[in-house]
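Late entry, written up from scratch paper. The run itself happened at the end of the previous shift, but nothing got recorded in the book at the time, so transcribing now.
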Amino acid sequence: MPRSPTFDRDAKVEQAMQLFWEKGYESTSVQDLVDHLGLNRSSLYNAFGGKHELYLEALDRYRQQDIEWLRGQLREAPTALKGIRQTFVTVAERATESCCGCFTTNAAVECAPRDASTQKRARESFEKMRSLFRTAVEQAQEEGAVDPSRDAKALGCHLTNVYNGIHLTAKTNPPDAVVQDIVEETLRGLTCSARDASP
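Output as recorded:
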């Protein structure tokens, strides 16, 4: 029977998450994991099953943390619109400070097209994001900050797309002003009235 691990599994998954997030799946070798986690190969395989299984577990950890963070940002603000604004301001700051992007978005681009397990996880995360943003928009409409005639579901999809797009843009290391312009135009478009948005 395989021996029970003598290390902190959660800590190792966290370390693996950081490595996969920084390097991506293909560029991370088993030897990279062995070196970064301080485990031998047999311990790694016994505990996690292999590189792909560990990648999915690391991705699940990131996804949970990311969704919990987004939910907190949107719910803890004094108004829904301030929650949306603070979310995007913070995302822009974090994205431009690090060129790693969003792990979930990276996974969707790198692995989802050919790996059903990754695709399912990315799709679930994006669906949760759309739902959280939609709820925030609906609350902003109730508070009078967003025109109630606008489609909250469509706006939730749009905000999710911008959220992920900011991370992708930031990976190209653009001037900070580029990302800031994306944020400001997104927020300006969110609050414009249906009449103002008409051609």
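DSSP finds ten helices and no strands in the chain.
(Scratch paper discarded after transcription.)
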